[in-house]
Amino acid sequence: MTTVTVGMGPVSFADVLAVARDGAAVELHPDAVTAIEQARLTVEKLAAAPTPSYGISTGFGALATRHIPTEMRAQLQKSLVRSHAAGSGPEVEREVTRALMLLRLSTLATGHTGVRPVVAQTMAAMLTHGITPVVHEYGSLGCSGDLAPLSHCALALMGEGEVSDEHGVRRPAAVALSEAGLAPVELEAKEGLALINGTDGMLGMLVMAIEDLRMLLKAADVTAAMSVEGQLATDRVFAADLQALRPHPGQAASAANLVRLLADSQIVASHRGPDCNRVQDAYSLRCSPQVHGAARDTVDHAALVASRELASAVDNPVVLDDGRVESNGNFHGAPVAYVLDFLAIVAADVASISERRTDRFLDRTRSHGLPPFLAHDPGVDSGHMIAQYTQAAIVSEMKRLANPASVDSIPSSAMQEDHVSMGWSAARKLRRSVDGLARVVAIEYLTAARALDLRGPLEPSPATAAAVALLRRNVQGPGPDRHLSPEIEHAFDDVRSGALVRAVEDTMGELA
After folding, report:
1. Residue 343: which pLDDT band, with cuts at 50, 70 and 90?
2. Is 54 a catalytic residue?
3. Least buried of 37, 109, 150, 250, by fewest C-beta within 10 Å?
4. Which of 198, 230, 254 finishes a domain?
5. Is there a single domain that holds both residue 436 and residue 475?
6. pLDDT above 80: residue 132
7. pLDDT beyond 70 at 115
C-alpha cells in the first residue's frame, strides 16, 4: 500500500489524489510531531492562565464572551463537535471525506493549531484503516471553514456517530475504531475547534476537479478533432503562426493538439485542394482552441490558488512561532470559492461548444453529405437525434450550475459570522458540472465516431482512428437503430476513466 507522509511541507495534488481516490495510507513525519508538541505547550500555558483566551477558555462565535471554567473545558470541546455535527441530506462521496480529513491533518501537522500529537496520529490512522466518517451534503457555509462536514469527522474521532468501513459498510464509529485497534480521542482544550475550522472540504473537491478537468480538456480536444475531421472542416486555422498572434498559452496548447490529432488524415486531405469551395468553418469548429485554451488557462489559475491553499494553515485562533495565539480570518473560503465558481463556468462553456459541434453532424444542411441524424434509414431510424437532446439537457443544467455560489451570503451565529463564502456549495455544484462535461463530451465522441465511419472508405487520422477503435470494442458501427443509452454509457466510461485520452496518446504521444 502506498503511504503518504504528512508534515514535510505542503501536501501535493498527488498526495490528495492518492489518499482520496486510491486509499493510500497516511503517516505523520517526526518533525510534524515535534511541531505539534511545541504548539501544545503554548495552548496548555494559556489554558492555565486566568485571562480568557478565545477557543481555549471561552465559548465560540457569538458566545465567545463567556469564560469557561477549567473543569468544563473538556465538555466544551465535546459539546462544540456534537452541536456542529449538524449536517443533513445524502452522504457525500468517500473520496471527498478522505480528502477533507487529509487536508485537516495537514493543517494540524503545521504545529499552528495547538492539538496534541494523539489527535493527529489518530486521524492519520483512521485514513490508513479506511475508516471514513459519514459526512452529509448540507451544512457548510464555507466560513468558519467547512464546519459541519469537519465536525462529523471530529465526532468519529471521538468514537461517536457513524462511519463507513474500508468495505463501504456503515458502522458505529466506536466499533470501527475498536476493530482497527484505535482508541477514541478524549478532546482537551482547543482541540475540538482545531478539528473543525478549515476550508478542507472545498479545497479537496477543488484539487480533484482540477485533475478531472485537465483530463477532460484533453478529451475535448480529441473529440473536437474528430468533429473537425468528420465535418470536412480545415485544420489550417490551427496553425502555430496564427495562434501566436494571440499568445494565450492554453490556446496554443489546444491548437497544437488539434494539428497533431489531425495529422495524416485522408479525410482532411480529401478536401484540401483548389476545388474546395468552403471559405470559413463555423465557430464551434474554428474556435475550439480559443474556448478550450481559455478553459485550460482558467484551470491553471485555479491550480495556483489551490497550491497556495495547500500550503496554508487554516485555523482560528492559531499558534504562532513566537508563542502568541491570535484570532484571524483565514478560515474564510473566498479564495477557493471564487475559483470553484469560475471552473463551473469553464465546464459549462466547454460543454456548450461540444454540444454545438455534435448538433452540426445531425443536420443534413450543415453536415456536408452525411445522412440526417446519421440515421441508417432516415425516417424509419432516428439515429443520434435524441443523443443531442440529452446533451442539450445536460448543458442547460450546467449553465444553471454556472451561476456563482460565492456571491451569496446568509448571515449566521447571531450576526457574528455575517459574511460567508458558500465555497462548499460551489464545490458541490462543480462536481456535478464535471460529471456533466464528461457526459457531453462522450456524446460528441459517440456521434463523431459514427460520422467518421460514414466517411469511409477515406481513413481518419491515426489518432482519431485509435479513438474510434476504442469505442468499437463496446459499441457497434453505423446500422439500424439500437438501444442508445448503453452506448452513451460506454462512451462516457471511456471519457471519464481517461481511456480515450490514453488510447490516443498511445498512438501519437502525450497531448499538451
Report:
1. very high
2. yes
3. 37
4. 198
5. yes
6. yes
7. yes
